[in-house]
């Protein structure tokens, strides 16, 4: 009996490797598709109920002008972390735009680890729903906020206390079911 040739054994090994790799990809895709929001929020932010981290960040549109966390006190605001490099930010952008148009609360953009030219071009292309946009080019201030990436969204009350955090893209159901009821509570003084 003749032993299989080396090229044939090599092709069989490649096919087996490809099948294992594709199986791994399929398993990962299944896990992502079937994870629910509760899984993604299994580790709630330790900032909830605590003062928002202090910061001094430049404005995206006016890099020489610094904005501090203290300047944002007085009325609640939604802080939305985004980047031109973030595909999910593009998904949530129309939702945030519609919400910002209600003028229910100040919507502040937090541009994370982005080149200013890319961020400005992105806003020009998709629109700017933000009252102002803070720029954190190196991501140092993001560490204090516990920001893992983009998109992430926070609700900060008038006293500077973090009341809510959402990891991932917000949609209408999240705005209507989570964010708006919290804004109602803040307005009612709770």
Automatic annotation (TrEMBL):
Occurrences of domain Thioredoxin (ranges): 46-188
UniProt KW keywords: Cytochrome c-type biogenesis, Disulfide bond, Membrane, Redox-active center, Transmembrane, Transmembrane helix
Subcellular localization(s) per the UniProt record: Cell inner membrane
Transmembrane segments: 12-32
InterPro entries (UniProt xref): Periplasmic_diS_OxRdtase_DsbE (IPR004799), Redoxin (IPR013740), Thioredoxin-like_sf (IPR036249), Thioredoxin_domain (IPR013766), Thioredoxin_ResA/DsbE_sf (IPR050553)
Predominant subcellular localization, coarse grouping: membrane
SUPFAM superfamilies: Thioredoxin-like (SSF52833)
Protein family according to the UniProt entry: Belongs to the thioredoxin family. DsbE subfamily.
Protein name: DsbE family thiol:disulfide interchange protein
Annotated source species: Luteimonas lutimaris
């Amino acid at each position: 009996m003749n032993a299989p040739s080396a090229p044939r054994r090599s092709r069989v090994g490649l096919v087996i490797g490809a099948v294992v790799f594709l199986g791994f990809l399929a398993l990962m895709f299944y896990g992502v598709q079937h994870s629910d929001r509760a899984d993604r929020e299994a580790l709630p932010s330790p900032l909830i109920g605590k003062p928002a981290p202090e910061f001094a960040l430049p404005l995206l549109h006016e890099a020489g002008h610094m904005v501090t966390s203290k300047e944002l006190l007085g009325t609640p605001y939604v802080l939305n972390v985004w980047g031109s490099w973030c595909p999910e930010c593009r998904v949530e952008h129309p939702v945030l735009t519609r919400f910002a148009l209600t003028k229910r609360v100040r919507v502040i953009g937090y541009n994370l680890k982005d080149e200013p030219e890319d961020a400005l071009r992105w806003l020009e292309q998709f629109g700017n729903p933000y009252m102002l946009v803070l720029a954190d080019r190196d991501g140092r201030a993001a560490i204090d906020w516990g920001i893992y990436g983009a998109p992430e969204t926070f609700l900060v009350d008038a006293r500077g206390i973090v009341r809510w955090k959402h990891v991932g893209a917000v949609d209408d159901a999240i705005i209507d079911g989570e964010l708006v009821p919290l804004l109602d509570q803040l307005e009612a003084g709770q």
